[in-house]
Amino acid sequence: MSFAWANQYEPKTAFTKWIDEKLPLPRLVYNAVGSGYPVPRNLNYMWNFGVLAGFCLVLQIVTGVVLAMHYAANAQVAFGTVEHIMRDVNWGWMLRYMHANGASFFFLVLYLHIFRGFFYSSYKAPREMIWLLGVVIFLLCMATAFMGYVLPWGQMSFWGAKVITGLFSAIPLVGEPIQVWLLGGYAPDNASLNRFFSLHFLLPFVIAGVVILHIWALHIPGSSNPTGVEVKSESDTVPFHPYYTAKDGFGLGVFLIIYCVVVFFLPNMLGHPDNYIEANPLSTPAHIVPEWYFWPFYAILRAFTVDFLFFPAKLLGVIAMFGSILVWFFLPWLDKSPVRSGHYRPLFRKFFWFGLIPAMAVLFYCGGAPAEEPFVMLSQIATAYYFLHFLVIIPIVSQIEKPEPLPYSITEAVLGSDDKAVLGKNAKTAA
Q: Is the CATH number of domain 37-288 1.20.810.10?
């Protein structure tokens, strides 16, 4: 969105004028992330996570490309090449740990970014397309992460691929052919590793393309804000640079400190020890578990233990697992409240903090726990609430709740008053 008061790019030197005439890239940057992009003045640190997600994507692409130079996608030598990277390649151990833990930090940032969107209803009009593209990015990240987890060819890599691709066999009639087609055989092997490596290398660049569309869609309506009130005047905004570049820079610094502590001091904290054992089709691990960022959806999958009518439990679990993310696509139309921010929606706020967040916490925990009681029962309860929250509670709450009074403008929310809210001045301005 280009506001009337937005700063205009003015090249200062003959060279920058020539560049601006031939390829206006500096102008694009200036208007996208510079002083030419007015942003609501009240954004809190929860708005940092979009920038952090972009940084994580670049980090994963850079480290991944270098690792790919030393990796061989062959079932006979894949595990050995990973050990070669760790032991023989200069700084290979650091690159491997940066990439592996970078994936975990990427998903941590994505989850915080998404749940900020849930609370502040960032999916509401006119920002539906931003939200839809964001969900697409999340799905692509999950596919990329799963295929990357297979590449080290350890025990958990092999059996994780076996279990996850086995889910497609639950689809009636076509399930098993799809599984064989995905794997290139009846079990994960050389063909599987080759195609997983190819897609794992390709998809991050696809993600980068969708991210560009995501940012483009963001610049049309402009950024949302904690009040949910749209920008009304120049006093409601500040230039993105230097105000939010400084704020994002501080957030990035804190992120890098925590990230470096994990990479250099706790590099295997988020991994599984079984993945340091080479893949063996004849030895099944006692507890097959995916990476931690898949745990809530893995818990939903395992929550279905009984057949229902003509639907086997396995198929129901698969449908629920994919449905738990697909339901996000419909949020802009499920939530009909005219108010965006959860700060001004008392009933919505209670269900968010005391319903959705605890349910997600339980799913995270149960997804990493063994498939036994009481974890199965807890998964079932949390899964039931998860779907009720999005499909039943949010539509009903949006219809019946009485929102709290909204501020007249972002300026009033920040300063406590806004001169333009005075009736006399408004009337004078209108005249």
A: yes
